Amino acid sequence: MSLSNAEIQSLIQQSFEAKKFSYSPYSKFAVGAALLCQDGTVVTGCNVENAAYAPAVCAERCAYTKAISVGQKEFKAIAISSNLDDFIAPCGVCRQTMVEFSKDIDIEVYMTKPDGTYKMMKITELLPHSFRPSRLLQQSQI
Questions:
Q1: DSSP label at 135?
Q2: What is the DSSP annotation of 90-132?
Q3: Is 100 one of the catalytic residues?
Q4: Are 37 and 74 in contact (CB under 8 A)?
Q5: Rounded Cα–Cα distance for residues 64 and 28 (Å)
Q6: Is 80:51 a contact under the CB 8 Å cutoff?
Q7: Would the pLDDT of 134 be above 80?
Q8: Helix (H, G, I), strand (E, B), or coil: what is residue 7?
Q9: pLDDT-based confidence at 140, cuts 50/70/90?
Q10: Any bridge partners for residue 121, and if so which?
Q11: Are 87 and 115 in contact (CB under 8 A)?
Q12: Is residue 34 within a helix (H) or strand (E), and if so which, with residue range?
C-alpha cells in the first residue's frame, strides 16, 4: 500500500501547513499532522495546549478526531511535522489511537524534519504487541 513520492510529498506539505495553526503558547512546540483517509481525503490537525496541561491534544489525535467526526474511519497514512532537528515521532497515546483505527491496515507513519526529509515506519513497528480493539471483542464473546 505504499504511497507514491508525489502523495508523500503532498501529505508532508499539508502537515507543515497544519503546524502553522498550532496553539502551543506554553511549550512553544508546534506540531502538525496530515491524515490520509482511504478515500483520498486528507484531514489535518495541530497540537492544542491548555494551561492545565492534561487536556492538551496532540496534532495526530486532533486529525483523527476531526476525521472521525465527519464520518471517516479508514486511513492509509499520516505525516507528522515539527521544528525539531530530528524526526518527530508520535507519542504513545497517539500510537494507540492510530492502532485503534488501523483495522487490518498497517498505517504508514511519515515522521519528518523541518527540511522535509522523512522516515517512514509502519504503526506495527512503532507500537508492537499493541492492545487492539479485537482483543476487547474477543473478551466480550467469552
A1: H
A2: --HHHHHHHHHTTTT---EEEEE-TTS-EEEEEHHHHSTT---
A3: no
A4: yes
A5: 22
A6: no
A7: no
A8: helix
A9: low
A10: 109
A11: no
A12: strand 31-37
20: exposed, middle or buried (C-beta count within 10 Å: 0-12, 13-18, 19+)? exposed
Quote the CA–CA distance of 23 and 56 in Å, as a whole number: 10
Cβ–Cβ contacts within 10 Å for residue 76, how many?
20
Phi and psi at residue 13, to the nearest 5°: -60, -40
* 80-89 per-position pLDDT tens digit: 999 999 999 9
SS3 for 134? helix
Nearest to 102 by CA among 136, 142, 141, 134: 134
Indicate which residue of 7, 49, 60, 108 is catalytic.
Answer: 60
Decide: 110 and 88 in contact? Cβ < 8 Å.
no
Q: Which of 107, 101, 142, 132 lies closest to 121, judged by CA? A: 107
